[in-house]
Amino acid sequence: MIKFDQILKSKAFMILLNFVAAGILVMIIVFAVSKWLHKYTQHGVEIVVPNITGLYTEEAEVILASKGLKLEILDSLYDKNATLSSIVEQTPLADSKVKYGRTIYAIKNSNHRRQIQMPELRNISQRQAEAKLRALGMQVGQVKYEPSAFKNIVMDLRMDSTSILAGAYVPEGSVIDLYVGRGPGAQKVKVPNVIGKTLTEARSILIGQELSVGRVEYDERPTAETWGKQVVYSQTPEEGAVLTGGGYVNLKLSIDPEKSVVSSSTETEGDEFF
Fold this sequence. Notes:
Layout: H1 4-9, H2 11-41, E1 46-48, H3 57-66, E2 70-77, E3 87-91, E4 97-99, E5 103-109, E6 115-117, H4 126-135, E7 139-146, E8 151-159, E9 162-163, E10 169-171, E11 175-182, E12 188-190, H5 199-208, E13 212-218, E14 231-236, E15 242-244, E16 248-254, H6 257-273
Parallel strand pairs: 2-5, 7-11, 13-16
Antiparallel strand pairs: 1-4, 3-5, 6-10, 8-9, 8-11, 12-15, 14-16
């Protein structure tokens, strides 16, 4: 019969004892690690999200870090009512509850307004043009009516009295004035001479005669340097033609002033011939 002291001294018992000791040690380590993780990761703890709108990025990062949260700027936009470079939106919202270590996403106010490329908004209805301007982030300014064969159709759009061509870049939030046709008039009017005039000058003269600018063609597409400097060298119909009020006069413009001089001289010679 095996004695108890022999069992204690046996090799099998020693191996079993080592396994038990190793198991106890592993349990102690797991317990200690879980305690440490709980302490330093705040597992299960909910954090109330602070309000960071109106703050600069650096300020928001400090406040969020003190709560165990992180900040990520997703995008920027321009808000004229907000401080430049300040945070204007956050997700999740202030006072929401999130887990420790959560990232708070934010949008900040840009230092400058975005430049928006303008689509062609002429020859569409006033309602359509206004809807498209607002969708682009623009403000609709004054609506002014011009003589035109078509009623409530956009004839021109301007910013600070300057016409805006399709493709031009305009700061987001700009105020855009619309010039809308008021329909044809009953009276007959003579076409004035606008050769040598800029587009703005020609339009003003034609409107004064109850006429409208029709198709506008440029020898070269205007640039920032040549904008507003091109002059009319050809008009159709020519000076003296009779149109119904609201009728259109098509214009061709060039940066070369000599063209308008040649065109004007040609017309004068033609008048003398007849």
